[in-house]
Design brief:
The chain has 15 helices and 12 strands. It has 516 residues and is α+β, with helices and mostly antiparallel strands.
Length: 516
């Protein structure tokens, strides 16, 4: 067979042309790829999709827009990993998400307050991006508080991110004061309150108003007639968790319960009477009532105090408040038990919510699908009349009287803030109560590591506000960013949604004297 010498030349030439064309295309792709990455990394491009003017305005007012040396920190320098494959992957994911949101989401319905929360921001900031500029964790101008915080961060990098403590760094926000402030001078709304206790017959079991002696701070207590109820939830209740059963009969004596969660007005009164900078971490001094040490940060989160529920204190601090209040008033106040809370929250209604019969506006189809697929059988429009929760709260607390009370006249048992209970938490506590006869005035296990928390908060979904829904404290997790050693026994650095409510027992002695 005779070989054609030009055949190999033709093959080589074709290969060469393909190679040149391929290299050209690759170069073009690389060029346009880099150009696209560069173009889509500009601040103007970011703003074209992120149609939220406040984000841009607050960034320009913040410390990163123009540093003292004139450097401008751009959007992508904080909100994407600094370089490499991870940068491109996250950029692609963010771009796809933002394009979808731009074209298919009604941006007027986006809750920007929620988007600015720590939980949301954690997904869109990167420690590597922070450390690219902030190479030195201990600059000369850093104060001792900052040194302590950065040492704590360096020891706990697996659990902490820069944004845990520096949430407001990238975008300007008004900073709250570091300490509990004196009571604000504001015009008080004229509100009809229950009579002062001194105006009632001795030992009468009625609603009353207590005034803290010498401080002019008042709070209301609601008389709750005791009785027997079924505690816990049935197995078929939508949203039910295993620790809500088995259901047990519980019998409670008469008691008074705070009409509202303990407010900042009330807690500030305690703080002003007992807090001393010179106390040790346990808050103890030989010549004073045990009281809180100064808070490490801003305990009200900048939302305001006065009649908003007091938050960020520990269970220990809530108990000490009750001890102080008992001492200055001469009456014994304490935290509510879990059984007392559920009894008051139900207000005689065994349904998931105390207003369930009133809220029967759902169609049979909605009720059927809720039972089949889970979810709370509740009209959320009605729920919104009684509770601040994720749907309507804008992720912050509100004054106690800003919603309607339940049929007992008690406010915010559902939502606003979760409430500490007296009891230690146990997932099977109801199983420990007797079957066939009611448990009388139960107070939970004799010991434990965490405490019961009830009621849901401004961050909770509707299903978490059911009367039987249980929660607990997470003591270690709620102190995650506290750099102090030992950590505070008074203030939580990482819990912003728990407060407390007080009760007072109607003692046998008071009952007998009232009868006489």
């Amino acid at each position: 067979m005779k070989l054609n010498p030009f055949r190999f030349l033709r093959i080589k030439r074709a290969t060469l042309i393909a190679l040149v064309v391929g290299m050209g295309l690759a170069a073009a792709l690389i060029f346009f790829g880099f150009a696209t990455v560069k173009r889509t990394s500009t601040n103007d491009y970011c703003e074209s999709c992120h149609v939220h003017p406040q984000a841009t305005e607050s960034w320009k007012q913040g410390p990163h827009f123009k540093t003292p040396s004139g450097v401008v920190v751009n959007c992508v320098e904080c909100h994407l990993p600094p370089e490499g494959v991870e940068h491109l992957v996250e950029k692609g994911k963010a771009g796809a998400r933002d394009l979808y949101g731009f074209y298919f989401t009604d941006t007027s319905l986006i809750d920007w307050e929620e988007k600015s929360s720590l939980e949301a921001a954690m997904h869109f900031t990167y420690d590597d991006a922070c450390s690219r500029c902030h190479v030195e964790l201990f600059p000369r101008e850093l104060n001792q508080k900052g040194v302590d915080a950065h040492l704590h961060y360096r020891k706990n990098k697996e659990e902490l991110k820069c944004i845990n403590c520096h949430l407001k760094t990238g975008h300007f926000h008004e900073e709250a004061e570091e300490q509990i402030l004196p009571q604000e001078e504001v015009a008080e709304e004229v509100i009809e309150m229950a009579p002062l206790l001194a105006e009632l017959p001795p030992n009468a079991f009625e609603d009353y108003t207590e005034e803290i002696p010498g401080l002019g701070v008042k709070f209301e207590m609601v008389a709750v007639k005791g009785g027997t109820f079924l505690m816990g939830s049935p197995e078929a209740e939508p949203g039910r968790e295993p620790d809500e059963g088995p259901q047990r009969q519980v019998q409670l004596s008469d008691f008074w319960m705070g009409k509202f969660e303990v407010s900042w007005d009330e807690y500030d009164a305690y703080y002003s009477q007992t807090a001393t900078v010179g106390k040790n971490e346990a808050g103890e001094m030989s010549d004073a009532i045990t009281g809180p040490t100064p808070p490490y940060g801003s305990p009200d989160q900048g939302w305001g105090k006065r009649l908003r529920p007091a938050i960020t204190m520990t269970h220990f601090a809530a108990r000490k408040y009750c001890e102080w209040l008992s001492e200055v008033t001469g009456r014994t106040y304490r935290l509510q038990t879990e059984a007392e809370w559920e009894y008051a929250a139900r207000a005689g209604n065994p349904a998931p919510f105390f207003f369930e019969q009133e809220a029967g506006t759902q169609s049979w189809f909605d009720s059927f699908t809720a039972k089949l697929f889970g979810g709370a059988l509740v009209d959320e429009e009605v729920l919104g009349r009684y509770a601040w929760y994720r749907t309507n709260s804008k992720l912050r607390t509100y004054p106690g009287r800003s919603k309607e009370p339940n049929s007992l006249g008690i406010y915010n048992l559902l939502g606003n803030v979760k409430e500490f209970c007296y009891d230690f938490y146990a997932p099977d506590v109801l199983a420990s109560y007797p079957e066939g006869q009611p448990a009388v005035d139960p107070k939970g296990p004799e010991s434990g590591e965490e405490r019961v928390v009830r009621g849901g908060s401004y961050r909770s979904e509707a299903v978490e506000l059911r009367s039987a829904a249980r929660d607990r404290s997470y003591h270690t997790q709620w102190l995650k960013t506290d750099p102090q050693n030992p950590k505070s026994v008074w203030w939580y650095s990482d819990s912003k949604e728990v407060g407390f409510r007080i009760v007072r027992e109607y003692t046998q002695e008071e009952i007998e004297q009232a009868i006489e």
